[in-house]
Amino acid sequence: MTGGEPTVGAAIRAALLTADPQAKAMAARKVARDWRLGRLAFAFGEAMPERPARPPAPELLPPSRMPRRGRGQSERGRIALWHALGHIEFVAIDLALDIAGRFGAEMGRGFVTDFLGVAADEAMHFGLIDRHLRAMGSHYGALPAHDGLWEAAHDTRHDVAARLAVVPMVLEARGLDVTPATLDRVRAGGDERGARILERILDDEIRHVRFGATHFDSCAQLRQVNAADLWKSLVSRHFRGAIKPPFNDSARLAAGLSRDLYGEVAMPQGAG
Ligand SMILES: [Fe+2]
Ligand SMILES: [Fe+2]
Questions:
Q1: How far is CA 39 from each of CA 4, 93, 100, 103, 232, rounded to the nearest angstrom?
Q2: Which intervals carry biased composition (Pro residues) (predicted)?
């Protein structure tokens, strides 16, 4: 790189290092837009940060110390649910930025385009949820949140195939499985606006998982190994949780994940 042309790597890094939630969401959408409009050079001068910047609130707790979320439709329970969903989307912004910035040079322009598109979607999801929380008299940061999500990313920072295997193909795919039941519960509670937000998110997440599965397949081809075997070995090495039914098979299939792939590593229903 010569001259002062801004690079996509530097823009991604700056968004990762933005702590304020609204500012990070805006920065993510701006990087995606600038990249799409050809305003950023395909260059990655600096390393991505070990950890992205986070705001002072929410307080981050290990999953075991998270207060239990009450069941039912109490106002407090509803706020806790949306706060937890908002946190997932907030961390998802950083996950998408990090994969694009860390592995973009190796994986190419199409990969950067796909995952910056994901980052912009996650920023939009976060914004919708934060607005919904505010309509309920709360906001993102009002409650503690769990700190487990970034760990999967950190553990796979040296291998793009491992990152794709765990983040889009396990964690985001898990979102496809659990969202329909949440959506039904939200709708049954009379929160139609919330239900529409979740429908929107579910549609977008199918695409995110599909990007993950597609780029994972290219990694496997490049390494001349069977994609299913590579996925299973990376998941067993890098993912400590269980792959558990019930699965949303139709959404998974739409995302390019076949039952042959995850059916074999799945624990029997009710186990774990
Ligand atoms: Fe999302
Ligand atoms: Fe996503």
A1: 12, 21, 16, 20, 39
A2: 54-65
Separation of CA 272 and ligand 2 centre (Å): 25
Ligand nearest the Cα of residue 205 is: 2
CA of 163 to the centre of ligand 2 (A): 14
- pTM as predicted: 0.95
Given a cut of 50, whether residue 272 has pLDDT beyond it is: no
Query: Cβ contacts of residue 34 below 8 Å, gap of 6+?
Result: 6, 11, 40
Distance from residue 103's CA to the centre of ligand 2 (Å)? 18
* Residue 47 CB-density burial (10 A; 0-12 exposed, 13-18 middle, 19+ buried): exposed
Per-residue pLDDT tens digits for 5-62: 899 999 999 999 999 999 999 999 999 999 999 999 999 998 999 999 999 999 998 8
Q: How many angstroms is it from 80 CA to the middle of ligand 1? A: 17
Q: Which ligand is nearest to the CA of 206?
A: 2
